[in-house]
From TrEMBL:
Its cofactor is FAD. The keyword Flavoprotein applies. Residues 1-10, 26-36 have a biased composition (Polar residues). InterPro entries: FAD-bd_OxRdtase (IPR050260), FAD/NAD-bd_sf (IPR036188), FAD/NAD-binding_dom (IPR023753). It comes from Methanosarcina mazei Tuc01. This is FAD/NAD(P)-binding domain-containing protein. Gene3D superfamilies: FAD/NAD(P)-binding domain (3.50.50.60).
């Protein structure tokens, strides 16, 4: 700063019009302020994913800055309590809409541009732009918060589930499953984790005959030892849930017509099937953009949560 002032003063003298040190400092301050405003004006943050992580990031950034924030999500809802879905199915919570924590109006009021039902198709790291089916979104900072996808334990000729087989990864999934339950008498739940067990309890409360199947020898194997798992199983069975352990299931391509699951030594009739077999990281966008994926399937980051592309971590 001192060096700049000295040079500016000398130049002014040579030109025949001298400026005081105060005038020079005021001019520098105005330029700095202008540059600061320009930086804020063009600081664009794009967040891919409208789940808990994406929306928490967006609101945190808004509280601490005036950045231009855009959230891109292919979900049809945002800011909702996913873990409450089983309690709606069991009629302990009035409706799925009650799970929405913040309406879209909240984000509009806070100048967070939320784009629902808009799927990102690619990320151009070099050009710093996110591309969707609707348009392009340039960014100065990018947050990848794509979360996870349901793990589907089946191979299929088509990349879709047969009608009558559901997952519960989103609020829209819950709405579809809840509607289908209106005419269902028997439901098979595949997966012995927390979601599978909570849904089994919920459906039993509705008077629906429910079967819970897991390929593991026990329920809740990531949470409990066998002796504790046995208590959970006993409770489920006391409520009328049929629990089958140590079995894999074959889902027929024509389940919508056949309404039958195939086990090792029996066939199991079911009006509907709920897959609660866990999740896997949704990383295909990052992988195609050249971002490094780890052995466990997630995105590799450093202590600053910066992603890695090639041999270095990216600053943005």
């Amino acid at each position: 700063m001192k060096s700049m002032g000295s040079n500016s003063g000398a130049k002014g003298t040579e030109g025949g019009s001298s400026r005081t040190e105060g005038e020079i400092q005021e001019n520098i301050s105005e330029n700095a302020s202008s540059n600061s405003r320009t930086e804020k004006e063009f600081a664009k943050v794009v967040i891919i994913g409208g789940g808990a992580c994406g929306m928490a990031t967006a609101t945190k950034i808004r509280r601490q800055s005036d950045f231009d924030i855009t959230v891109l999500s292919w979900d049809s809802h945002t800011a909702y309590s996913h873990c409450g879905i089983p309690f709606v199915l069991g009629k302990e919570i009035e409706s799925l809409k009650k799970l929405i924590v913040k309406p879209l109006a909240f984000f509009r009021e806070n100048k967070i541009n939320v784009k629902l039902n808009e799927k990102v198709t690619s990320i151009d790291l070099k050009g710093q732009v996110v591309i969707t089916g609707e348009g392009t979104y340039p960014f100065d900072r990018l947050v990848i918060a794509t979360g996870s996808l349901p793990f589907i334990p089946r191979e299929s000729r088509a990349n879709i589930l047969p009608y009558g087989i559901f997952t519960l990864r989103s609020l829209a999934d819950g709405m579809l499953f809840e509607k289908a339950l209106e005419t269902a008498r028997t439901v098979c739940i595949i997966g012995g984790g927390t979601i599978g067990i909570e849904c089994a309890l919920a459906l039993t409360k509705r008077g629906i005959r429910t079967t819970l199947i897991t390929r593991g020898d026990d329920l809740l194997t990531r949470q409990f030892d066998s002796d504790m798992s046995a208590i959970v199983r006993e409770h489920l069975e006391s409520l009328g849930v049929e629990v089958i352990t140590g079995e894999s299931v074959i889902l027929p391509e024509n389940f919508w017509k056949q309404k039958t699951l195939i086990l090792r030594d029996r066939e199991l009739p079911a009006d509907l099937v709920l897959l609660a077999t866990g999740v896997k990281p949704e990383t295909w966008l990052a992988r195609e953009a050249g971002i490094t994926i780890g052995k466990a399937g997630g995105i590799i980051v450093n202590e600053m949560l910066q992603v890695k592309a090639g041999e270095k971590f990216l600053p943005r």
